Every structure is written in structure tokens, then in C-alpha cells.
């Protein structure tokens, strides 16, 4: 027995509508769980400098795993990533990582507190230090695109700026990152269940 072509067209349109609905729900689910990683110029217009009020600069920001801190500073200065104890005591000799050269990016790869101090102990004691609370619970992350990180001697002095940042304090987005945790997994599960129910 032959099925009329108008019936086949109706069946094809029904299947196409369901596929379109499922694709739309999947896109919606990812849109609800994705965010653009942010690159922050540390200290805003002043950069990483003794005159910058770094705690005030950081106070209104929400840092999450995948964001990038962009330190711009004079080539005679440096940035040290340190432990909490070394942060509080401005210990510049026992550091987690040291950056020099005037242009440094640090990707925030884990949740928790991150601590940075000037390599000059007197500057650190004068307030040139930064505590960054990083929120986590990410499924995964893709760091924002940013300039290459300076790790000391890996870049020549001619490739880096000699002064603090002249950039504005507006964060820039440059990459996508899965953000959330169990709440967003729940959203995706509900959307997939809804799609499966509508498929039948």
C-alpha cells in the first residue's frame, strides 16, 4: 500500500519541528551555562603601581576561574604570587611565582584566594599588594585570550612597556567558559528531559 505524499510531507515536517525544538533547547541550555571569561587590567588606569588603591579596585569585581589578571607596571618593579602568610607579612623572598618585565598575565585556574605582592618589600608594606577571591564550582574553563605572560627572563626588555597601564578599567571579554556547577547541570538535565518528552 502506498502512503500519500501529503502524509509523508506532514511526517517530515513533524520530525523537522521536533529536531528544531531539541536543537533550540540544547542551544538555550548552553547559553544559560556559558559566560565570557574576563581580562582585568589590574589597578585600572594606574596599573600595578604604589599609587593605586588595589583593594578598592578589586572590591567591586567578581573573579571566577578562567578570568585573567593583566598586570602592567614599570620594568623596575615586579609581581610576586605568594601564600597568604607571605601576603600578610610582605615576604618577597619566598614566592610561589615571580613575574618581571612590566607586562604580565595570570590566568585564574582554580577557585580560592590568590595573593600578589610587589617584589619591592617597601612598596608591599606601602599597600602594593592584591588579594583576589576567585569563585569556582566550574565544570571546566577556557581562559580568556590575553597577552603572553612574562615569567622573568623569557622576554627581552624591548618587548615590554616601560610604564604603568594607560588602559581603562573596563574588563574585556575574550573567551567562553563553562560556568556554574550543579545548578547549571540541573538546568541542562531539565531541558534534555523536556526535549525527550516532546520528542515522543
Question: What would you say this structure looks like, in words?
Answer:
The protein has 200 residues and is an alpha+beta fold. It has helices at 5-33, 54-59, 84-89, 121-125, 182-199; strands spanning 34-41, 63-64, 68-72, 78-82, 97-100, 103-107, 112-118, 129-135, 172-178. The strands form 2 sheets. Strands 2-8-7-4-5 form a 5-stranded mixed sheet. Strands 6-3-1-9 form a 4-stranded mixed sheet. Helix 1 runs antiparallel to helix 5. The longest helix is centred in the first third of the chain and has 29 residues, at 5-33.
Question: What layout of secondary structure does this protein have?
Answer:
Layout: H1 5-33, E1 34-41, H2 54-59, E2 63-64, E3 68-72, E4 78-82, H3 84-89, E5 97-100, E6 103-107, E7 112-118, H4 121-125, E8 129-135, E9 172-178, H5 182-199
Helix pairs in contact: 1-5
Alpha carbon gyration radius: 24 Å
Helix content: 25-40%
- What is the tally of beta strands? 9
Protein structure class: alpha+beta
- Strands of the widest sheet, in order across it, are 2-8-7-4-5
Proportion of β residues? 25-35%
User: Number of DSSP helices?
Assistant: 5
For the largest beta-sheet, the strand count, sense and barrel status come to: 5 strands, mixed
Summed over residues and divided by their number, the pLDDT gives a mean of 74
User: CA-to-CA gap between the ends?
Assistant: 26 Å
What's the order of the H and E elements? HEHEEEHEEEHEEH
Q: Can you tell me the overall shape?
A: rod-shaped
List low-pLDDT spans.
138-183
Amino acid at each position: 500500500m502506498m502512503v500519500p505524499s501529503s502524509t509523508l510531507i506532514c511526517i517530515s515536517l513533524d520530525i523537522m519541528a521536533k529536531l528544531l525544538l531539541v536543537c533550540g533547547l540544547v542551544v538555550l541550555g548552553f547559553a544559560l551555562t556559558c559566560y565570557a571569561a574576563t581580562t582585568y587590567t589590574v589597578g585600572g588606569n594606574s596599573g600595578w603601581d604604589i599609587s593605586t588603591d588595589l583593594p578598592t579596585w578589586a572590591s567591586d569585581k567578581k573573579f571566577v576561574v578562567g578570568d585573567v589578571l593583566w598586570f602592567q607596571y614599570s620594568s623596575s618593579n615586579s609581581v610576586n604570587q605568594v601564600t597568604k602568610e607571605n601576603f600578610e607579612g610582605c615576604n618577597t623572598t619566598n614566592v610561589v611565582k615571580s613575574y618581571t618585565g612590566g607586562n604580565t598575565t595570570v590566568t585564574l585556574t582554580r577557585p580560592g584566594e590568590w595573593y600578589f605582592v610587589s617584589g619591592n618589600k617597601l612598596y608591599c608594606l606601602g599597600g602594593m599588594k592584591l588579594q583576589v577571591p576567585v569563585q569556582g564550582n566550574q565544570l571546566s574553563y577556557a581562559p580568556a585570550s590575553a597577552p603572553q605572560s612574562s615569567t622573568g627572563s623569557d622576554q627581552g626588555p624591548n618587548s615590554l612597556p616601560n610604564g604603568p597601564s594607560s588602559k581603562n578599567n573596563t574588563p574585556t571579554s575574550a573567551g567562553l567558559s563553562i560556568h556554574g556547577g550543579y545548578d547549571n547541570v540541573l538546568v541542562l538535565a531539565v531541558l534534555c528531559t523536556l526535549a525527550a518528552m516532546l520528542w515522543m
